[in-house]
Design brief:
Shape: globular
Largest sheet: 8 strands, parallel, barrel
Distance between the termini: 41 Å
Strand order of the largest sheet: 1-2-6-11-12-13-14-15
Radius of gyration: 23 Å
Bound molecules: ligand ZXY, calcium ion
Strand content: 15-25%
Helix content: 10-25%
Length: 512
């Protein structure tokens, strides 16, 4: 009977809502624009040992080479074919990455760009990352193959053929997103080409997909496609495991399309999460951390078991896109670490950590005119290797937020606290807050302009704990601050508002 119940529970968990991360791992990291060779190394030398569950990779399929501007990051969102052949590497390198990452329990999540191909106005040629020919004028992509009847030409009712009004659900789905040639996803031959592409990736060993521009695809078409995907490769995953699917639906309200339409298909990105938390941590519009007491569904977010959450992504970290100026990024490092720390400590949602390359921000009339700049690269266009410095940070223009001690240690905190409810919430009515995760972990923030000095009920067993923000436990010692929990579970927290990082986190695996 109990065995039956267990099997049933396992059965429920092997659906498309399950992130498929290995046991005890709870977050993924987006290694934006990284080369497959570098990701393979990172899985083995850092992500596996530090408890990361997976990597969201940049689109692996062949894309248009954009020369004006010169090789922007967004060229990878203009597909030319489904050959695995990009600036990140070729198919052999891709297979090697998937194998090596899977073998250390770090799974690969592919950014799937299936709503469209390249822009309508790019003409014809073979200026693509694998040299495949295209003729945008004739809507011809022979390497897939796609031709005229595979695109939404007649269905779109706008004068320009582009999306003109985001309040009109029909045009958001059937017209071109910024002139990108829009695929007719109800067409069986289009579905078959996409399914072949995704199944090839599944058979290689990937664990799931981020569906780019899901808002621009009909939920019924997405459902039809993912229902025909293979189960995951049994070399690494249990028999019958469904691919994890999370859909990029940017819904901050006020448009003709709601995230709710996608919740039954798979998980969905909750863009309100980073937009709102950015405002709270920046203390904009009268927001305070005390209001985070009912963070999650209490803030009218989607259900926790449907949400993928993040502080920033590759698009909105550039000051545009969903959330605009409130989004925190590595550029506001002190506040950013607090926001990521809060996210990873809080039980809501499945968490994704951003890992960026840097670029010279240049604001003109409030807009960063360098928002297009692509990854660190050489003059011939090839992407620079991610070098690792003596102090474990990255070089060559790679920011590697996921390697920042505070963020890496909070990824571990989340793993340790997995399955524990939020407990012992405390706040001062302003911007000093604290909460626990069962009797496993406790975190305290001081985002006020004065020193915090309070004694709080942590719920933790008595003992001496290493703060994993100012340091960590190493060789049975703390490299940073120590926190003493007394036999009644209480501990004193003194956090200066001018501390390098005005927050403290402890958990049972960091107990001396
Ligand atoms: N791009 C520049 C120039 C071309 C690319 C731009 O100014 N675009 C217009 C505003 C951003 O709109 C885009 C959205 O999603 C995309 C876009 C895109 C998805 C793609 C390829 C794209 O341009 O070019 O696969 C978008 C859609 C929404 C929404 C907000 C933004 O509410 O429904 C960009 C590229 C942005 O800025 C981009 C690219 C890939 C993404 C993404 C944004 O996954 O989220
Ligand atoms: Ca579409």
């Amino acid at each position: 009977m109990t065995l039956l119940l267990l099997l049933l529970l396992l059965g429920i968990c092997t659906c498309q809502f399950n992130p498929n991360v290995a046991c005890g791992r709870t977050s993924i990291v987006h290694l934006f624009e990284w080369r497959w060779d570098d990701i393979a190394e990172e899985c083995e030398r850092y992500l596996g040992p530090n408890g990361f569950g997976g990597v969201q990779i940049s689109p692996p399929n062949e894309n248009l080479i954009v020369t004006n501007p010169s090789r922007p990051w967004w060229e990878r969102y203009q597909p030319i074919s489904y050959k695995i052949c990009t600036r990140s590497g070729d198919e052999e390198q891709f297979r090697d990455m998937v194998t090596r990452c899977n073998n250390v329990g770090v799974y690969i999540y592919v950014d799937a760009v299936i709503n469209h191909m390249c822009g309508a106005g790019v003409g014809k040629g073979n200026s693509s990352t694998c040299g495949s020919p295209y003729n945008a004028d004739e809507r011809s992509f022979p390497s897939v193959p796609y031709s005229l009847h595979d695109f939404n030409e007649k269905k779109c009712k706008t004068g320009s053929g582009n999306i003109e009004n985001y309040g009109d659900a029909d045009q958001v789905r059937d017209c071109r997103l910024v002139s990108l040639l829009d695929l007719a996803l109800e067409n069986e031959s289009v579905r078959a080409s996409i399914i072949d592409y995704l199944n090839m990736l599944i058979d290689i060993g990937v664990a799931g997909f981020r569906l780019d521009a899901a808002k621009h695809m009909w939920p019924g078409d997405i459902q039809a496609i993912i229902s025909r995907l293979n189960n995951l490769n049994t070399q690494w995953f249990p028999n019958g495991t469904r691919p994890f699917v999370f859909q990029e639906v940017i819904d901050l309200g006020g448009e003709g399309i709601s995230v709710k339409e996608y919740l039954s298909i798979g998980r969905v990105t909750e863009f309100k999460y980073g937009a709102k938390l950015g405002k709270v941590i920046r203390k904009w519009e009268g927001e305070k951390m005390a209001y985070l007491k009912n963070w999650g569904e209490g803030w009218s977010f989607i259900p926790t078991d449907r949400a993928v959450v993040f502080i920033d992504n590759h698009d909105n970290q550039r000051g545009h896109g969903a959330g605009g100026a409130s989004i925190l990024t590595f550029s506001d490092a002190r506040l950013y670490k607090m926001a990521v720390g809060f996210m990873l400590a809080h039980p809501y949602g499945f968490t994704r950590v951003m890992s960026s390359f840097s670029w010279p921000r240049n604001y003109v009339n409030g807009k960063d005119i360098n928002d297009w700049i692509g990854p660190p690269s050489y003059n011939n266009g090839s992407i620079k290797i991610v070098t690792i410095n003596e102090d474990t940070t990255c070089g060559n223009g790679w920011v590697c937020e996921h390697r920042w001690r505070q963020i890496k240690n909070m990824v571990i905190f989340r793993n340790v606290a997995n399955g524990q409810a939020l407990t012992n919430w405390w706040d001062n009515g302003e911007n000093q807050v604290a909460f626990g995760r069962g009797n496993i972990g406790f975190i305290v923030f001081n985002n006020d302009n004065w020193t915090m000095d309070v004694t709080l009920n942590t719920g933790l067993p008595a003992g001496t704990y290493c703060d994993v923000i100012s340091g960590e436990k190493k060789d049975a010692q703390c490299t940073g601050r120590q926190i003493t929990v007394s036999s009644n579970g209480k501990a004193n927290f003194k956090i200066s508002n001018s501390a390098e990082d005005p927050f403290v986190a402890i958990h049972i695996n960091a107990k001396l």
